[in-house]
Amino acid sequence: RAKHSGRSTFSWYTADMDVDAQKRKEIEADLVKALKFDQFDILYQPQYSLIDNKLKAYEALIRWEHPSKGTISPDNFIPVAEDCGLIEAIGDWVLVHACKEAASWEDTSLCVAVNVSADQFIPGVTEQKVAEALRLSKLAPERLEIEITENILIANTKAVVETLKNIRSMGVSIAMDDFGTGYSSLSYLSRFPFDKIKIDHSFIKNLGKSTYTDAIVTSIVGIGRSLDVLITAEGVENAEQVTLLRAAGCNLVQGFLLGRPASVKSHETLRARQAQDPMLIDPLARQLH
Ligand code: C2E
Ligand code: MG
Ligand code: MG
Ligand code: MG
């Protein structure tokens, strides 16, 4: 998925590509080193409310600072990590580090969203990992959100529901990521405890260009309403999309228009500059003018 690869210029692996065994071994060995020598980094992407135009949260997105290959995007190594079992250790690292960083933010109203992939989601274990990250970081549970995908709902339904309930009972919220791309079933939706749906960017991309897509997005927002969950739109890149999402009743937006994944420090610098310069107003306010 080249469109996902961000600033990375190097591609080792894509979902559609068969990587030969030799290459996989190489990546695995390199991933072990990456964990050992602390080569992972987390970038943060802002999520804004369409209700009050305010910054609400940052999503934590992992990057691999490879010593010779440069920055590598998650789409290029997470699938390998999932297959070889290293995703657990990488996931633990992300969870603890994202919580620690969020606990250090000046604005204590901001939440942090952490991705947990299906292979990483282990009933009976994941809730303990979440509790441990909260304990180590001293982050208020209400400030943590776990992003899962529909794929975790396929197997072992009962145990998965139990774990989601356990996580929510700590005060942590659950968001359903990439909604509409996976094993979507409306009956599943009503059975699984979660707080938010993130509409996949593939739908947002065609918003305003296809009446079919517009209808799907409006329907998802409607589902969110009736299930009493918040709706976030992913991959928002232009003002027209924001206008349509507002009209549809979408709650939150995330995408390059509002900010690319970057360090929180650089987001703060930009926001401080925007606040001081009357000519530089934030993207959501600008969209209203
Ligand atoms: P995701 O969780 O759906 O994250 C959103 C992805 O969309 C990010 O790609 C982000 O950079 C990209 N994106 C954001 N806004 C826009 C936009 O306006 N246009 C376009 N075209 N793309 C946008 P990224 O950072 O490369 O991450 C890709 C995927 O890798 C994530 O998708 C997530 O599934 C996975 N991932 C990232 N970090 C982690 C992690 O710490 N753990 C696990 N298990 N998976 C992760
Ligand atoms: Mg996500
Ligand atoms: Mg997504
Ligand atoms: Mg994804």
UniProtKB/TrEMBL annotation:
Residues 24-275 form the EAL domain. This is EAL domain-containing protein. It comes from Roseibium algae.
